[in-house]
Amino acid sequence: MTTIRRDLIKAALMRAFTSIDYNIHIDFHKNYELRKQIILADNSLTEEEKTEAIRLNNRDYDRDKILYNSGTRRICENCNQKCLATLYCEYCVQNYLKANFSNWSSGNSEIDDLIRKCQSETLRPNVIIEWIPYDNLKNIKYLTRGGFSKIYTANWVGGQYEKWDSKEQQLIRFGTHHVILKELENVANASQRWFEEAESHLTISKKYPQVVRCFAPEVINGKEYTFKSDIYSIAMLMWEISFGLPPFINYNHDYNFVINIIDGMRPKIISEIPSKYKNLMEQCWNANPSERPNIDTLLERMEEIKTYYQNNTNELPQLLPKIDEICNNISSKVFTSKIHKFENLPEPKNATEEEQEAFHSKLYNLSIPDNNSNKKLSKVFKKLQINSKNDDIQNYNNRKTMQQQLNVNINDEDEVYNNPNLHSEEQDKLEIPDDGF
């Protein structure tokens, strides 16, 4: 059997996606057919790889048909309902999940209702919000600390759902794989309003996983995706690694946000960031792709920075106190993210220091009140944070019990998703030591 080259398939899918002028071809049904024809004509792929690429294209098409409730319906041979998906039946998947509602519980009816609502509206079998028993996480090891949480790695036994088996009429799991866990802080003060926002956030995020904040400005502006666009995305990751927070968490991802990115807005850099790291990061997110380093230069300079601080540990910056101070002043994003179609955008440019300061002068404040008296949710919400690629809810105090695991699926076929995996009040006494188990 020929080995399928996943990297080439991903590159071909990206070429197919970026080859279409979406200002002209606005019908997603026609776009699907255009992408299919581009894939079939791609000489870099073997026939087997083309088949796999088309399968992935079909999977995305199934998602969009269900999301927008548009397309030719077929009669499912199992449930006899008129479904839109072709690789699976959305009703069969949803009914399968509903039939299993009685087989799990978080110990809190409101959390159960939230997860069940999400499962009842599932769009595709490989993106399902689910309850994960704590015992299904093995080899938990401490990795690092971010602004709001401690980060651990673990193996998720069984793994997430991957596909629907039409013959056996059941969901198939990916298998045991590596995940990242977050030990979160200060959800004890969560109010009912906070929970309602979390519900809205989770419902929206599972449907719209786009990540505008990491897209290069030229890609947002409709230009072709290139290796230099990847370098811009790496700069966003560099900022997140150094800061412990996702970039632009206090901004609505709306038209004004997009315009600001194109006009040169970048994440704010604190003075404690080492100058060489800062300069490299700024070069990587330059508005002009030709000014960004190539991957070899980037790797070489990163190695130089790493070696320098390994040999001069006394010069390592003390970032955590500064980050904690800033985190205490950062609030939840407001829940107004929408799907936008942007046209006639200006050319990307770099902003001056004064313009950068002006970009960051307006922040939103929706923090959880410290004097919240709602005790109903506090027991289970001691450590609940629901994150997505579009919205973030920040909560922080000094408790150390892990109450949620965020799954990051390492699977070359799929996008990366942050799935809320909650466990019960009875497990609240479990402590995770800094050196793991």
From TrEMBL:
<dbReference type="GO" id="GO:0006955">
    <property type="term" value="P:immune response"/>
</dbReference>
<keyword id="KW-0808">Transferase</keyword>
<dbReference type="InterPro" id="IPR001245">
    <property type="entry name" value="Ser-Thr/Tyr_kinase_cat_dom"/>
</dbReference>
<keyword id="KW-0067">ATP-binding</keyword>
<dbReference type="GO" id="GO:0004709">
    <property type="term" value="F:MAP kinase kinase kinase activity"/>
</dbReference>
<dbReference type="Pfam" id="PF07714">
    <property type="entry name" value="PK_Tyr_Ser-Thr"/>
</dbReference>
<dbReference type="GO" id="GO:0005524">
    <property type="term" value="F:ATP binding"/>
</dbReference>
<dbReference type="InterPro" id="IPR011009">
    <property type="entry name" value="Kinase-like_dom_sf"/>
</dbReference>
<feature type="domain" description="Protein kinase">
    <location>
        <begin position="1"/>
        <end position="309"/>
    </location>
</feature>
<protein>
    <submittedName>
        <fullName>Kinase-like domain-containing protein</fullName>
    </submittedName>
</protein>
<dbReference type="InterPro" id="IPR000719">
    <property type="entry name" value="Prot_kinase_dom"/>
</dbReference>
<keyword id="KW-0418">Kinase</keyword>
<keyword id="KW-0547">Nucleotide-binding</keyword>
<dbReference type="GO" id="GO:0007254">
    <property type="term" value="P:JNK cascade"/>
</dbReference>
<keyword id="KW-0723">Serine/threonine-protein kinase</keyword>
